[in-house]
Amino acid sequence: MRAFASDSTVEKWLPAMLSHPHILLSSTILASTWLDMRAECSGDSWRTALVKAETLCMINERLRNPNTELEDATLMIILHLLAGEMWSCNEKVLRVHESAVARFIFQRGGMRSLENRAVVEIAAA
């Protein structure tokens, strides 16, 4: 786990990741982009492209559902996607995801309205 997070982050983030299948599945972006980086891919591998596409589908599905659109889990999935985009360094795509995070937090009523402290810390970072 040292490649992805500190012990503190793992202690806080892992229980949240295990709380919903979408969160766990979206976290595979981190591993896939890390493998791309280690393989010195100049862009996304077919695997990473597939994981990102599936994650975008999950996000869109959650945002269309009034019961899940503003859940912490939805924000966690968006944060995973944002982190997965950092290797490609596409500023336009990164700004889209950053804007989505900011809009989500605003719609929820600010950082204090988030329930999971790990989500708050990662979103603030």
Word description of this protein:
This protein is 70% helix and 0% strand. By secondary structure, the protein is mostly helical. α3 runs parallel beside α5. The model has no long low-confidence stretch (mean pLDDT 85).
Throw out a few tags for this protein.
single chain; 125 residues; mainly alpha; 7 helices; globular
Largest sheet, strands/sense/barrel: none
Give helix % range: 55-70%
Round the mean pLDDT to the nearest integer and report it: 85
- Secondary-structure element order, as H and E? HHHHHHH
Oligomer: single chain
The helix/strand class is mainly alpha
Radius of gyration: 14 Å
Approximately how much beta-strand content do the residues carry?
Answer: under 5%
Number of DSSP E strands = 0
Low-confidence stretches: none
Amino- and carboxy-terminal Cα gap: 19 Å
Any idea what the shape is? globular
List the total number of helices: 7
Structural topology:
Blueprint: H1 7-17, H2 21-26, H3 28-38, H4 46-64, H5 72-85, H6 91-108, H7 117-124
In brief:
With 125 residues, this protein is mainly alpha-helical. Helix content is 70%, strand content 0%. The radius of gyration is 14 Å and the shape is globular.
